[in-house]
Design goal:
- The protein has a domain at about 95-225.
- It has six helices and no strands.
- The chain is rod-shaped.
- It has about 230 residues and is mainly α.
Length: about 230
């Protein structure tokens, strides 16, 4: 019978001194890339492979570290309204308050008296002419209208002074000069109107320049009293 041919064992027919090494274990020559088609200096500096990036630190226990928001920058505090003025908040002046109230009270009586006298200007001039025994005397037609307008202006001026004074007092500002200025304006208006009225009646001015005119006026007033 023909003897069956025995299969050689692994490496039995290899030459003496030969050792098998896997292809991955063979050393790659310096300057050559182990992967065909890829440059050997890709991502390397000076022909050396880049150092691996350091691993991110992890929280103990295997869980990732919890997220913590950064603290926002601290802004300077806004100035308070009381410190916005160099001198601090305004304070009410007791003296100014008292003087303003007194002037407003006096102004109320003054405005009432002046308004009544200006509204009755035409009848008052007629009485003066009768006391001085002026014949054929007539008050100009525009005098009653001027007196009425002036009297209403006195009330309007006082109302403006009163409202403005209250506003300044509530704002803690100096207010005494408001009724004082209104009084000065009222006196100036009264002087201008009366001067214009008397200048329009020269015969009355001539009779009033007589030395006996004052005595006649006093006598007339005495007779009018009950």
């Amino acid at each position: 019978m023909t003897e069956e041919r025995r299969q050689p064992a692994y490496g039995e027919l290899a030459p003496e001194g030969w050792e098998w090494k896997p292809a991955a274990a063979e050393e790659t020559p310096r300057g050559e890339s182990p992967v065909p088609g890829v440059p050997h200096n890709l991502g390397a500096q000076g022909g050396e492979a880049p150092a691996p990036a350091p691993a991110a630190p992890q929280h103990q226990g295997g869980d990732p570290e919890p997220y913590r928001a950064t603290r926002p920058p601290q802004l300077p505090p806004a100035p308070s309204p009381a410190r916005s003025f160099p001198g601090g908040p305004r304070r009410r002046n007791p003296a100014d308050l008292a003087i303003t109230i007194v002037l407003l009270v006096i102004g109320a009586f003054g405005a009432l008296v002046l308004a009544q006298s200006m509204m009755g200007l035409a009848p008052s001039l007629a009485l003066v002419a009768d006391a001085l025994e002026l014949s054929d005397f007539a008050v100009p037609s525009w005098v009653p209208t001027a007196g009425l307008v002036t009297g209403l202006g006195m009330f309007a001026l006082y109302a403006i002074a009163l409202i403005w004074s209250i506003q300044r007092l509530r704002a803690k500002k100096i207010a005494f000069w408001v009724p004082l200025a209104a009084g000065v304006l009222a006196v100036i208006a009264l002087f201008v109107v009366t001067t214009a009225v008397t200048m329009s009646m020269p015969e009355l001015l001539d009779r009033m320049s007589d030395p006996d005119a004052t005595q006649r006026l006093l006598d007339s007033l005495t007779q009018m009293e009950p």
